[in-house]
Design brief:
Order of helices and strands: EHEEEHEEEHEEEHEEHEHE
Radius of gyration: 17 Å
Shape: globular
Strand content: 15-25%
Number of helices: 6
Largest sheet: 3 strands, mixed
Bound molecules: citrulline
């Protein structure tokens, strides 16, 4: 696996904060937290490639939202927040240079990558129908990915589908036991495609969003001992290595999840 990340804008303090209580962002602390994230990723993937910061786009470090990589295909997103339009341009160029087959979503589709959950070990891709992502993007994603099943799921609360939900592996979904996670749990219960997945709730909003830099490694954020204990037990049971990253408080203030700061590129790419 390789990872694409983006430098932190000097304007990061102006990032969109809608879901979390507004608190001033300490950009220097954010730099340190981002550095720790990248260093941990470097120890777990073959290469981390960094696209330079873009000070005109305060949210541009949230690179996950700008493209979805599925195998050798990169689908370039159309960010759902007007202030984020354009962030995807250098990301598309980088993915093209890396040899991926680049496809684009076209208007009226809008999509943030944080709304796209690929379920490991299956050809199923869930797309959250949220404030940022619409049904046209589901149709276009499906057309670009004929060997996958792309299924839209309504996101009634919170920013993105993956804010309170990720997959731990091909058997287990993690959900945050908060309003957004509970609402999604009932939406997911109605999907026959997910019948084979066990659903595990963790108490903390931040801890259900884990990053999988390989099929053996899981990264989570600290800050909730109860959630950490749940993840420890799950990982032990599955032979997965759990890596704990000190909570990225400044990113959480801007509604960012752990997955949001990278795009993972499978090895063949
Ligand atoms: C936004 O509102 O777009 C950013 N402040 C946060 C984006 C977080 N993205 C993600 O978790 N995938």
């Amino acid at each position: 696996m390789r990872a694409l990340v983006r430098g932190l804008a000097s304007t990061f303090a102006d990032a969109i904060c809608i879901e979390s209580p507004v608190q001033p962002i300490d950009v220097q602390l954010a730099q340190q937290q981002k550095h720790a994230y990248v260093e941990l990723l470097k120890s777990l993937v073959h290469e981390v490639i960094e696209i330079p910061a873009d000070n005109k786009h305060p949210d541009s470090c949230f690179i996950e939202d700008t493209a979805v990589v599925v195998g050798r295909t990169a689908i370039i997103a159309r960010p759902g927040a007007a202030s984020r339009l354009g962030e995807e341009v250098p990301v598309a160029e980088a993915l093209q240079k890396l040899g991926l087959e680049v496809k684009r979503l076209e208007a009226p589709a809008t999509l943030d990558g944080g709304d796209v959950l690929q379920l490991p070990g299956t050809n199923l891709i869930l797309v959250g129908l949220s404030k940022r992502t619409n049904a046209a993007s589901v149709e276009q994603m499906q057309a670009h990915l004929p060997n996958h099943r792309v299924v839209g799921v309504s996101v009634d609360h919170g920013l993105h589908l993956k804010s309170p939900l990720t997959a731990l592996d091909s058997t287990t979904l993690l959900l945050a036991d908060v309003e957004a996670g509970r609402a999604l749990a009932s939406r997911l219960a109605a999907l026959p495609e997910l019948a084979g997945f066990k659903r595990v709730m963790v108490p903390d909003a931040v801890c259900a969003n884990v990053l999988l830099p390989s099929d053996r490694d899981v990264i989570m954020q600290t800050g909730c001992p109860e959630s950490e204990a749940v993840l420890e037990a799950l990982c032990l049971d599955r032979g997965l290595a759990l890596h704990k990253l000190p909570r990225m408080t400044e990113f959480v203030k801007a509604d960012g999840a752990l997955t949001c700061c990278s795009i993972l590129l499978p090895e063949a790419t």
